[in-house]
Amino acid sequence: MTIGDTQRSTPVAASTPGVVLLLLYLGYLLSFADRVIFGLVLKPIKATLHLSDTQLGLLSGVAFALSYAIFSPLGGYLVDRRPRKLMMSAAIAFWSVATFATGLAGSFLAMTLARIGVGVGESMLHPLSVSLVADTVPVNRRPRAFSLYLSAGAVGSVVALLFGGLLVQHLAKIHGLHLPGIGPIMPWQGLFMAAAVPGLILAAVVLMVLREPPRAPVAEADSAHPTGLGFVRRYPWLAGAVFCGVSLAQMGAYTVTTWNVNFFERVHGWSGSQAAIWLSLTSGVATIIGCVLAGPMIGYLRRRGHADAPLRLCLVASVAHAVFAVLGLLAPTPILALCLFPLGSFWAYVPSVAGFSALGEALPSPVRARLAGLHTFANGVISNSLGPFLVGVFSDTLFHRPGGLRYALVLTVVIAGVGGVVAVAAGMKQYRERLAEG
């Protein structure tokens, strides 16, 4: 018996793999669009609330990501024990309300609290996805399933950059914009308020459409480590690879995505909307292609005899993204930067697909969502929080001269790439041992 053979479930009614994937896809698309539009309007937020770069780094990273990280293990615990339909609907509704509140924030404290709320809601989604996909999709198809699911993040990024940039331009042309019961609002505030509406609609759709799929029985191999802590103690290097290594490999991509619009504004003198539109049409499209192809690439490596294919691909992606991202950041002209960034963006989400594929194969079924929540915790602290925050700190301290943002980004990307390679490589042997257990 191999890992995952006992994890196939008979689809029932609306809980077929296609419906589950579609709802998860839409949820992740909306959640990631929220993160990206925040980076799109860093400049007007900074001007309106009179913030420093360090405070911007806290808002774009720590405020969201720490709450996202801290609540993920709790979210995973609930997903393992409560109806996932209710958990998913409540999570989407919660972060959508918090997104709307982001547009109402009039101070650094209020903005921080709103971003914390977004993080709490979104922290449920990845544990839900690992649990639902593992219980509805056969093991040999999971890399492609996770590839499609995670491609929603890339699509959400493109949608947010393209339509968010156009919406900001449109709202900026409306003089004296007022909303009933709220009063005058600025274009960046209207962007967050508009972004909240699709999430509230999706939360209602989940309640109406999704039916709870049967949970997988406990596999024979999982009886050796029935708790999450038992699994981590038995496979510490594997845990380090899938929790910390994958998060470090992803940190560079998330950081560049968060700051790239501001990078073109400061370093190359472009407007935020101009940068957003061009980045969506170049780097955004490349990210989608890379994410969709990540599953087939894992399958190709498996057919070549590499049992550790997900982690092996993660190593390649970490190095490739770092190299091309650094070249793009150091490019002397914006056009050359736009040509180089997509070559790195192709690999931007590959570590996430690889990490989720490894989680779906290696985690014990009774505590799968809880451990997936731990993965989300590590990803929130390292990728979503530490990366953007380091850029702000490096910019304010080490590279505070004009144009210094590019060097702050380069240093952060290099730290992420090296750290990801070391941590992932250290866990590959234990990953192969875990797969051989069945």
CATH topology: Growth Hormone, Chain: A
Rg over CA atoms, rounded to whole Å, is 21 Å
Count of all domains: 1
CATH class category = Mainly Alpha
Q: Order of strands side by side in the largest beta sheet?
A: 1-2
Number of strands: 2
How many helices in DSSP terms?
17
Explain what the structure shows.
With about 450 residues, the protein is mainly α. It has one domain (about 5-435): Growth Hormone, Chain: A (Up-down Bundle), CATH 1.20.1250.20. The protein contains 17 helices and 2 strands. The protein has helices at about 15-40, 40-50, 55-80, 85-105, 110-120, 125-135, 140-170, 185-210, 230-235, 235-270, 270-305, 310-330, 335-345, 350-360, 370-395, 405-425, 430-435, and strands at about 180, 185. Helix 3 packs antiparallel against helix 15. The protein is globular. The N and C termini lie close together (about 5 Å).
Produce a short descriptive summary.
By secondary structure, the protein is mainly α. The chain is built from 17 helices and 2 strands. Strands 1-2 form a two-stranded antiparallel sheet.
Question: How are the elements arranged and paired?
Answer:
Layout: H1 17-40, H2 42-49, H3 53-81, H4 84-104, H5 108-122, H6 125-136, H7 142-172, E1 178-179, E2 183-184, H8 187-209, H9 228-234, H10 236-268, H11 272-303, H12 309-330, H13 334-345, H14 350-362, H15 368-397, H16 405-426, H17 428-435
Antiparallel strand pairs: 1-2
Helix pairs in contact: 1-6, 1-7, 1-8, 1-10, 3-5, 3-6, 3-15, 4-5, 4-8, 6-7, 6-15, 7-8, 7-11, 7-14, 9-10, 10-11, 10-12, 10-14, 10-15, 10-16, 10-17, 11-12, 11-13, 11-14, 12-13, 12-14, 12-16, 15-16
